[in-house]
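Re: weekly structure request thread

Next one in the queue (701 aa):
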Amino acid sequence: MPKEKKQTNNDNGYSAKDIFVLEGLDPVRKRPGMYIGSTGTSGLHHLIWEVVNNSIDEAMAGFCTDVEVALLPDNKVLVRDNGRGIPVDKHKQTGKSALETIMTTLHAGGKFGGGSYKVSGGLHGVGASVVNALSAWSRAEVYRDGFIFAQEYKRGIPQTEVKKIGKWDGPTGTTIIFQPDPEIFKEIKFSYKEILEYLRRQAYLNKGIKIITHDWRQLPEKEAISYFQLGHKAKTIKAVKEDLGKKPEGEALISNSYAFYFEGGIVSYVAFLNQREKPKHQNIFYAQKEHEEMVVEVAFQYSEDISGLELSFANNIITAEGGMHLTGFRTALTRELNDYARKNNFLKSSEENLTGEDVREGLTAVISVKIAEPQFEGQTKAKLGNPEARSAVDLVVANALEEFLEKNPGDARDILGKCLLASKARQAAKAARDTVIRKGVLDGLALPGKLADCSSRKPEECELYLVEGDSAGGSAKQGRSRKFQAILPLKGKILNVEKARLDKALSSKEIKSLIIALGTAIADTFDLSKLRYHRIIIMTDADVDGSHIRTLLLTLFFRYFPEIIQGNHLYIAQPPLYQVKQGKKIEYAYTEADKQEILGEFKKQAPAKKTKVTGKAEEGEPAEEVNISGVSIQRYKGLGEMNPQQLWDTTMNPENRMMKQVNIQDAKQADEVFDILMGNDVGPRRRFIQSRAKAVKNLDI
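Done, posted below.
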């Protein structure tokens, strides 16, 4: 018998030759998501944010007053500032120009030491090089030391040395032009609206800085680029600056150029965020102080609204998930308002303290910290982890708020009145909520009688259809897969929770049924881990009533179950608009384009003849006239028009169905839309509808 060979480390197929070292900017191109979050729309825009943040860092350091951003033809983006200009002298460690080092080397920049930046945003020195690596082409121009210096790159690789291309006697600064790489980004489509929102926010967070942006994508490329070359400015830029210069602060618009400039900083930001709300008190609270080398800035104001908004930032980067600075603010706010309420007899000795929930109802707050060494959780900086930020914000807010309340007794009275009303509503809601939950328990954890539950008890494979009306609910119950699909018919239109507090919402039979079916409870007892279905699917008719019911349900989830949306559990079913039939062959069209494609296929297979049109047609809608033999087109106006098999085939079968996943990309923007569409004020809603009327192609009346 042959002797068994002993396996060594070199025989197991894993040795030094299997270890790959990515050099230069290769790691960025290999794993772009690690640096910019994703290669989708958010990652694409993140490239702009990184370059802009470098200019903002110059502003925070006191060396920059103007930032310009331009969208150019051929997917190019230009960012220019009047800062000090990136150094161009030789770097002693790399032996290359400092400009080339910064643009082509990870973790190289003035943010790692040397005193160039006390605080900074961006990717801690990797921002410029990451943008460069993910661009098919880019160019850097530096204006300093009496000359203009330039260097071009392709996918992060320099195409020339840093060159001196001309003399310069104007202000110092840096211009970066980049063109995102289609090899990295499958779809390159910049949203000017999203860019404006981001730049407006930066102008608010950095008072006194002027930010100008232009959408020149439709101009000839040479004309657009020439506006910036050698410091020449377009007339539109001068006009915007002159228009803005006439105002102490604000926004200016000329053609496709916007300008932002706010001397009031985050106080102006709070006023902007509250512009559609009725303020509860006159003076906006503001505190700004440096504590242990950390700059803390906070502003807030209460409104009549029952929802609140807290935006937190660290070094101008929005921390969507909050963090220590937000915790410090909330702690100080709750403690100081309770202290003032006790001291001034707003609360009796027998009454319980105001909770964090009470003091945040109707609150619009902006919390901004500038910190030398921010500790973010995750590369996308969703949460600030520095413990010292909590104590610094707590101290600064506590001292300033105590003084604010004493100096402004009228504002203090209005604020405490708002909080006390919220406290009473919370207690009423708690009693109503407990009744709802207790009813579910007393019924032996019985689910609502009209709920047709599924047999599976694995939430990850279960889905709940919220169906409009008993008729469609009946079809859905018959057509579903009983193993994993549950059906909850909803009668009529549920309560508009945008106009109602939780205690009133819980008086609604339909909402109570939904809460029990979900299994998560609601408000402060909400527990996402107890969600009984990992897909909640809203299925309504394709008419005005169906759209209204869908909007009411979306409002309910947005206000009271945001975690379900954030967890990617909420969907909207897309039933077909048409059934197209030729003989025994049936196809379903979900859009007008689908219908035309199906008709095109049928036309290839049939002689000419006019179609037969069935189903409900909209008033004024032209009859179908398609010259295909034996074709009938049925326009579906409601789910009830489909039998159970059709509903399964088109809308509920995972193999065929189309669904839209609901997400919240911008919570504030979503909040404003819900306020406009579902709130009490008719004026903004009318303007919203009028401004979008031309975009409506098919309107059911």
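The domain at 447-574+662-695 is CATH 3.40.50.670 (Rossmann fold). The CA atoms of residues 292 and 392 lie 8 Å apart.
Next request, please.
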